[in-house]
Specification:
The protein is built from 32 helices and 15 strands. Among the domains are: 3-180, no CATH class; 376-470, no CATH class; 489-701, Rossmann fold, CATH 3.40.50. With 702 residues, the chain is an alpha/beta fold. This is CHAT domain-containing protein.
Length: 702
């Protein structure tokens, strides 16, 4: 049999990459072919799309080969091949910040049963060597195993989902790091130590002891010494006789020339023990942040840059946590603008309410004149809130206590479970305790925006309205915005849903009453038509009805679904032109339009977030919205926009849509013949509209 017989998907998709017609036998030639594929993958890193497609095709072939094997030795050779040929994708996706994808590659590489994309996997996992595989295959697998260890413990620390595996392979991981020696071995050992110290594992003493021994070894290169001392400036330093603060100061003093990329910033963050330290280091820290932001943006698209920045956001955590204690909103905004904002964009003002839900001293609130830390155990209440969030949204949100066992129905994944609405609202109330702010904030003050860092996918904006009585946009762009355009022209994209006709009918009546000119896209509603709709310079409000999709780590599968089933993806829309005169409003009344990946930073990697700019404000939905709720929200928002600016209009719409009686009266006032009245007047609609998972779903971003 030939290579093409064993790898038909790969051979058909990429006929010119490898000599597929050569004869192939797993035992005799498996290791050599694994080595050849590994070399090819390293070369293909110059073309991201081709490498992704090749690895997906190869994965499909390997899964078929795994299922077919009955001979134990051949099955072991397939295991080795799977492991070796996964490492390039593991390292690459981790470096790019595609944590969910990297997580799946990590586990798939060591399992015959792991299913990509599934939240729950009950599979067997094993690192090499593989019993029955040839010595050459195991040698190759063990040679690249250090890459797996390095990536696995970083992903476990930043993303989660690997706690059990990291504990199971702990001693093996340390042994692999030691065997690899200086360079990659040191990188792997520091990743293990940093992760285990953060999780407060008793076994942390093992990698720390090994690293300290390396520091005492005169043959240890200076670069490795710097990496070890950087690790000791984290929680790992608490397992030594020297404080993390002193490790950081020592490294900055003695090994500054050995520091690369983000490491100086990481150490500077550790030294911020008071306001005096911040003032002394402020200029240097902001300069380091700007240099890193420029580096991570270099040569990649805006979406890729945002994911890359988000995946490294833990670098800013010590700085943010410190500034919550003694800095100002101007300090906090300066740090975030330097990291996140587009190059050369003017920073927005600091008239904001800054919220840090994860602060060790309790949820932190900072505003221009003061600050407040709520009186609860933030870690405990946040864990409960994220469990409630997981239940309510049929998704897994990891809390401060690490990984936990969950049950997620893959068929209903991300679909709101209305029976958990009360649970999430109560858990959020206990965690955020916004009522404690009511008498502390300046009377009558409404901030320009609310800045949440780290952000969670929860209805915080709705809870602020409920507890404090106002809505301010969630900060996304961090830059100065143009003045809102007065509404003269409303342009509607009528994507196909159960309630499109009813919603368009309401919009047309409202527009007529308000004196707006309304336009409805017609003809073939494809990508070309959507671009024409989106780039319309006359429209003051763009209103999108239809279906939305959101896929973690993939901008090409996140966007607005077209009539023919294709997609106007985030990657597509981000390249479309937005008129620069004034600031228009984009209403994305579609599912998951404001769903953002959250990597312990601001919520910025999502469709709505990506489309916010100085020239465009966006309203969208945090998760899939029920079609009754979408119709009620669209109707309520349209009516409110005739009298109010966008943020206040969203406030009124949120209150209006949950009161079925008031909503029916207002719709009757427009026209008693509206389809929306019939659709929204029933008992089922009342139950949906009264649930926080409906009225807490819409958000406004700036």
């Amino acid at each position: 049999m030939t290579l093409a017989d064993h790898f038909p998907t790969s051979a058909n998709a990429f006929p010119d990459l490898l000599p597929w017609q050569l004869p192939f036998d797993w035992i005799e030639k498996g290791a050599a072919f694994a080595d050849a594929v590994l070399s090819l993958q390293i070369k293909l890193q110059e073309n991201d799309d081709q490498l992704d497609a090749f690895c997906v095709a190869l994965r499909a072939d390997i899964e078929v080969q795994t299922a077919r094997q009955t001979d134990r030795s051949v099955a072991a050779m397939v295991d080795g091949f799977r492991f070796v040929t996964s490492q390039v994708q593991i390292c690459r996706t981790m470096t790019l910040g595609r944590m969910r994808t990297c997580y799946d590659w990590l586990l798939w590489s060591i399992s015959r049963e792991h299913v990509f994309g599934r939240t729950e996997n009950y599979a067997m996992y094993a690192l090499p060597p593989y019993e029955g595989a040839t010595g050459t295959m195991n040698e190759l697998a063990l040679e690249v195993a250090v890459d797996w260890v390095w990536a696995a413990y970083i992903v476990a620390h930043k993303f989660g989902g690997l706690d059990d595996h990291c504990r199971m392979f702990f001693e093996a991981a340390v042994a692999i790091g030691l065997q690899a020696g200086f360079g990659k071995g040191t990188m792997a050992l520091t990743a293990v130590a940093t992760y285990s110290a953060a999780r407060k594992l008793e076994a942390t003493q093992l990698p720390v002891k090994v690293l300290l021994q390396l520091l005492e070894d005169p043959d240890t290169p200076a670069r490795d010494r710097a990496q070890i001392q950087i690790a000791m400036s984290t929680h790992a330093g608490f397992y030594t006789d020297t404080r993390p603060l002193d490790w950081a100061r020592r490294t900055l003093s003695d090994l500054r020339s050995e520091l690369k990329e983000h490491e100086a910033l990481q150490l500077l963050g550790v030294t911020l023990i008071d306001q005096e330290a911040w003032l002394a280091a402020r200029a240097e820290i902001l300069s380091e942040i700007q240099a890193l932001s420029k580096l991570y943006r270099s040569g990649v698209s805006r979406q890729v840059a945002r994911v890359s920045l988000d995946s490294r956001i833990l670098l800013l955590h010590p700085i943010i946590y410190a500034l919550c204690k003694f800095g100002s909103t101007e300090d906090l905004m300066s740090v975030l603008h330097a990291w996140y904002a587009e190059p050369d964009s003017p920073p927005a003002d600091a008239d904001v309410l800054f919220v840090c839900p994860n602060h060790g001293d309790g949820v932190a609130y900072v505003w221009p004149d003061d600050r407040h830390f709520v009186s609860n155990s933030a870690a405990e209440s946040l864990e409960k809130a994220l469990i409630a969030n997981s239940n309510a949204l049929n998704e897994y949100f990891r809390g401060p206590q690490g990984d936990r066992q969950i049950r997620v129905d893959e068929r209903l994944k991300t679909t709101p479970a209305f029976e958990f609405g009360a649970e999430i609202w109560a858990a959020m109330g206990d965690h955020y305790r916004l009522s404690e702010l009511a008498d502390r904030l300046p009377r009558g003050w409404v901030p320009r925006s609310v800045v949440v860092m780290p952000a969670h996918r929860d209805p915080l904006q709705a809870m602020i309205l409920d507890r404090l009585g106002w809505i301010a946009p969630l900060e996304t762009s961090l830059t100065i915005s143009n003045d809102h355009r007065p509404i003269r022209v409303l342009s509607i994209w009528p994507g196909s849903t159960h309630t499109t006709e009813a919603e368009v009918e309401v919009l047309m009546h409202v527009a007529s009453t308000a004196g707006w000119r309304a336009k409805v896209a017609s003809g073939e509603l494809d990508l070309r038509a959507f671009r024409q709709f989106y780039e319309d310079s006359d429209a003051d409000v763009l209103w999108v009805i239809g279906h939305g999709e959101q896929t973690s780590d993939d901008a090409s599968q996140t966007g607005v679904v077209m009539e023919d089933g294709t997609m106007a993806s985030l990657a597509d829309i981000a390249e479309f032109n937005v008129p620069s005169t004034g600031r228009r409003l984009l209403v994305l009344n579609i599912c998951s339009s404001a769903t953002a990946q959250t990597f312990n930073g601001m919520a910025r990697s999502g469709l709505a977030q990506e489309l916010v700019s100085p020239s465009q404000q966006v309203i969208g939905h945090l998760w899939p919205i029920d079609y009754y709720a979408a119709l009620a929200f669209g109707s309520s928002l349209a009516m409110a926009l005739t009298r109010l600016p966008p943020a206040i209009a969203l406030k009124e719409a949120s209150l209006m849509m949950r009161d079925q009686g008031e909503l029916m009266d207002l719709l009757q006032g427009i026209s008693p013949e509206l389809q929306a009245i019939q659709r929204l007047s029933g008992r089922r609609a009342a139950e949906v509209l009264g649930n926080v998972l409906s009225w807490g779903c819409p958000v406004i971003l700036t």
